[in-house]
Design a protein that fits this description.
single chain, alpha+beta, Diaminopimelate Epimerase, Chain A, domain 1, 2 domains, about 40% strand, globular
Length: about 325
């Protein structure tokens, strides 16, 4: 029997797609959002594949499933999904969700700025959406506590030799290294060379022990960010490419990645509180990021990071699967 029709709102932030489920998904049980995430992975993963995989999606599709929040202060809660499974935080999607939540009436529009709380698997995210003459615009979110988990870890990356990476948390754990360590440039090198190098780092760094403290479900390396190495504060943008999940390439600068990079730069004394930095993706799209205040995560020093950007609508869709369609969801992998 085919699943019911699933309706979505389609958006993008910085070129990175956001497929928001608005109807047709079954209720996802669980006392906590991480329990809901586990249930979705164990019992509803066929629906993730239906929406994310070809022929309805593509290798780099990204999706959002609204669920019932279970903490105070949350106006809505969401699970994030991608080509490999379910992430714990997604900044580009959060920026889109803020605008969509105001436009769809989940929270009433207040000019000039509407604020709301979005519960994600990593915690509660505060979002601010600019509203002028009833029209929504730019969004900003304040991150969960972001911190450096493992500084300057020596790695031997097959095909590339010894390098050093930092692992930082911005709602998910990322290995971070300059692309120059591989003889690459995030501005000019072919994308597949950057993806190969980043994926090799992720494989090599997978054995680095990671511990968040809130829940073991958060203790995994999500991907690798290769940067242009420009970490000292500057008025000029700093560029990076984020390769996450199963070699998925973020078209945006990556909101949780910007958060992790700001946490790393702040820990190194390269950027002070309140100093805004511009981050650029391989497509040329830009986010802003700044550390707004210091805090802790367990015993580790941490910062709250504000990330800003603009999401846009691209359409609406209704997805179905006919009973006699022999084509199961698939991905042509690269």
């Amino acid at each position: 029997m085919s699943p019911p029709a699933i309706r979505t709102v389609e958006m993008h932030t910085g070129g990175e797609p956001v497929r928001i489920v608005v109807d047709g998904y079954p209720p996802i049980p669980g006392a906590t959002i991480l329990a809901k995430r586990r249930h979705a992975a164990a019992h509803l993963d066929h629906l993730r594949r239906l929406l994310i995989f070809e022929p309805r999606g593509h290798f780099d599709m990204y999706g959002v499933i609204p669920v019932e929040p279970d903490i105070s202060g949350a106006d809505l809660a969401v699970l994030f999904m991608h080509n490999e499974g379910y992430s714990t935080m997604c900044g580009h999607a959060t920026l889109a969700l803020g605008r969509w939540a105001v436009d769809s009436g989940i929270v009433p529009a207040v000019e000039p700025v509407t604020t709301l709380g979005i519960q994600v698997p990593a915690g509660l995210i505060r979002v601010a959406v600019d509203v002028a003459d009833g029209v929504t615009g730019d969004s900003r979110f304040e991150s969960v506590p972001a911190f450096v988990a493992a500084p300057a870890v020596p790695l031997t990356v097959p095909g590339h030799g010894p390098i050093s990476v930092d692992v930082a948390y911005g709602g998910a754990f990322y290995a971070i290294a300059p692309a120059g360590e591989f003889g690459l440039d995030v501005h000019t090198s072919p994308i597949h060379h950057l993806v190969d190098a980043a994926a090799a780092v992720t494989r090599a760094a997978a054995e680095i022990p990671l511990h968040h403290g809130d829940d073991p479900d958060l203790d995994f390396l999500y991907g690798t960010i290769l940067t242009d190495g420009a970490d000292e504060w500057s008025a000029e943008p700093t560029a990076n490419i984020c390769v996450f999940a199963d070699r998925e390439v973020d078209r945006s600068p990556t909101g949780s990645g910007v958060t992790a990079r700001i946490a790393l730069q702040h820990a190194r004394g390269q950027i002070g509180l309140g100093a805004e930095r511009v981050f650029e993706s391989v497509t040329g799209s830009r986010f802003t990021g700044r550390a707004v205040r210091e805090t802790t995560s367990g015993e580790l020093p941490a910062v709250i990071v504000e990330v800003g950007g603009r999401a846009y609508y691209t359409g609406e869709a209704t997805f179905i699967a006919e009973d006699d369609d022999p084509t199961a969801p698939f991905l042509l992998r690269r």
